[in-house]
Amino acid sequence: MTVKQLCCQCSMHKLRGLYLILLLLPCISCAEESRPSDSLSTSTTEETTATAAPAPEINAAYVATSFECKAPVGLPDYYVRPDNPMTHEKVDLGRKLFFDPDLSVDRSMSCATCHAPDKGWTNGAAFAKGVSGKMGRRNVPSILNAAYYQSLFWDGRAGSLETQALGPILNPDEMGMPSAQALLERLQQHREYPELFLIAFEDGLTTTNIAKALASYQRTIVAGNSPYDRFVAGDKNALSPSAQRGLNLFLDRRKTKCIICHEPPTFTTIFYHNLGVGMEEEHPDLGRYEFTKIESNKGFFKVPTMRDVVDTAPYMHDGSIATLEEVMEFYDRGGIPNPHLSKEMRGRLNLTKQEKADLVTFMVEGLTSDDKPTP
Fold this sequence. Notes:
Layout: E1 39-41, E2 47-49, H1 88-98, H2 111-114, H3 161-164, H4 167-170, H5 180-188, H6 193-200, H7 207-218, H8 227-232, H9 241-250, H10 258-261, E3 272-273, H11 289-292, E4 301-302, H12 324-333, H13 353-366
Antiparallel strand pairs: 1-2, 3-4
């Protein structure tokens, strides 16, 4: 099952207008315009005073320039939450926030510190060190094509980019801000952010809007137009003979089973799997179980995309496998046995040396995007 294809809901309209207070005078017709009055005569002998309700404050700085969400070649349109339609103002603001170390407690790191554009939107290491100096316990996942994900984090605990956005900022072992309120106060004191939020959002600077701006920018970090995409579109010269053999193996549900977890066009899945990685340790990372507390979820993790996988080494949720060649050896052995090992992993694949090489060629040559997003 692939990520549901939903049309990108990217059109919106400005809300402008005057708030009119209608006076209930018998002599005024429904179509007649009037200005608010502090008093209202109900008869020739009796007068009562009515105080007009204050008009809602209008944010005159607010601008909403519709952002055209262009799906990469080979990928479907991605879903945008109705409560956070895309605008250029939000995207630009989200980009500024993403690269700003002011979002960390000691101003030493930004979102891009761990999700570096030149490292496949990850950090190129097994783990990342946060402001506390403590190393994280999970590999930094790439955010490339995260617009297509229905869940975020290795354990899937966030259901959208909006709900994920503040997680690393507030994590004491990552960016270390002590609370959402502390983050809000930090940005309120900034020389630019209060005005930029008034431009991007009708209600200005709020913690919710910080998350929405970051999510809007991250939805633009998408890539496609790989040799694989051109091959399936009809260009039979887009893949080398080795990559074509690798593709055929990749699509074989019985022999390699790759496609079961990495289904085109996103080359991922909404389901979680247990490969046995780290499960032989005394205190293993239990993955999805830590969020759901469901026994059968022990050792299950989110499936990353295979697109641009050559840029995101090392691999697995603990960064324990350095190369794609080693990844193939791991799968060929059938993972690491444990009580909750996914059924797709049970048993050796018994691939030949050439078959393993062809699979790696397909992943490196075939799934590397020509149109990579620019920061």
